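Q: Could you fold this chain for me?
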Amino acid sequence: MLSGGAAPAASASRAPAGRAGRAAAKSRPKGAKRTPEEIEAQTKTLLATIKKNPGLRIEEISKMIGISTKELALPVIKLFESKSISSKGNRRATRYFPK
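A: Sure. Below is the predicted structure, expressed as structure tokens.
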């Protein structure tokens, strides 16, 4: 009975810390648009990561550079449009390669 009561308390105490950590990492308010400079910086970081580590999935890249997969969607599109990267696979199995 004692261990059953301790488990929820541990998970409850971790949840706010995670939210606080993510909030502290962001420099803009929730729902605010990224500036063109932020998007450009993320695009350059993404391309450099793909060049260093070809064949990674977006989830792996996201963890490496600390940018959410959702925020990487636009930089990925920009890199495809400029023909800087290519991909193999579908959906979550998509792997990215430099050209």
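A (continued): The longest strand covers residues 85-88.
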